[in-house]
Amino acid sequence: MLDPIASKTALRSLFHRAQVAQLGTLFRVLKTRARRSVMRRLKCEDYLSSYTHTGRYYTLRKIARFDQFGLWHYGDVGFCRVGTLKAAVTELVEKSEAGRTLEELKDLLRVRVHNALLDRVRAKRIGRKLMDKKKWVYLSAKA
User: pLDDT-derived band of residue 106, with 50, 70 and 90 as boundaries?
Assistant: First the structure.
């Protein structure tokens, strides 16, 4: 394992060349096989993990160019300013004036959101209202 200063240099060099990296690449760059060590080094650099691809991709927060919804896509890999898919779903619904439909969230996030929505509703983090016989609108739980 590289020392903290060498790790910082190696990570910055890696992310300068490739804006996104997988864990295997981070293992090689940091010269370790310990996931906890990699996470500890990434934490010092203010990292994000992808909400797509089950969090297998990593980037530095300063690299991400978030859109007005707090999302950044690098190819088909998605990152969110607030972190996880569940947090992203909650934020997108909370900040919407009229709520969001499943289709709107799916289009914005570019992934299947059914399970995340159901989890957030059951946890009472967001609400929902049936608009017609088939379409739910997800609303702020605060409203």
Answer: very high
Give the H or E element holding residue 19: none
Q: How many residues in the chain?
A: 143
Q: Give the residue among 37, 74, 70 at the shortest CA–CA distance from 59.
A: 74
Which pLDDT does position 143 carry in this prediction?
61
**What does pLDDT average to over the chain?**
95
Q: What is the model's pTM?
A: 0.90
What is the distance between the alpha carbons of residues 131 and 118, in angstroms, rounded to a whole number?
17
E strands present in 1-135: 21-22, 47-49, 57-60, 71-74, 77-80, 100-101, 126-130
Distance (Å, rounded) from C-alpha 122 to C-alpha 114?
Answer: 12
Which residues are 111's β-sheet partners? none
Percent of the chain with pLDDT over 70: 99
Find out whether 102 and 94 touch, Cβ atoms under 8 Å.
no
End-to-end CA distance of the chain: 50
**Rounded distance, CA 21 to CA 129, Å?**
40
